Amino acid sequence: MPVLKSPEAVDAWLSDAGWHPGRRCDDLAAAEVASVLEDFRADGGRLEAIEPALAFLREHVGLVAPRHASTDDRVEFNPRLMYRGAAEDVQELADGLGKKVFPVAHDTYDGGTVLMDEAGRFFYLHHSGEYFLGDDKYAALMSYSRGYPLENAEDYYA
Question: What is the pLDDT of residue 70?
């Protein structure tokens, strides 16, 4: 994944993965959301779909974009529970923020999860901690592409 320095660079990176303005995948998004809701219940958690995440998924679900050209490290725009016990970690983030959150993407190398909250902000749940990515998809993906250090999500707790 190149360092994305502008909204146009984000759009180009997503376009290479199959995205285009106006893309809609409502049926696939609905199926993916239903699947992750069941996975969270099976993991002992409770998760509710929230409108900002649903809108994002309808447009981006199913995209797979490379993070590094030389590896199989990818960003997959699907809501996923990446490890056993993740439901508890997601709930802790939501409790700290005082807002519902919902997963919208993950990376395949570290198993980090990108989540959105009710305000449309993006966060990154990683084995090393909880991080804030940005207030919208462009800020979030530009921040994510730069890598660490990322802002701690705790700075956004209610």
Answer: 64
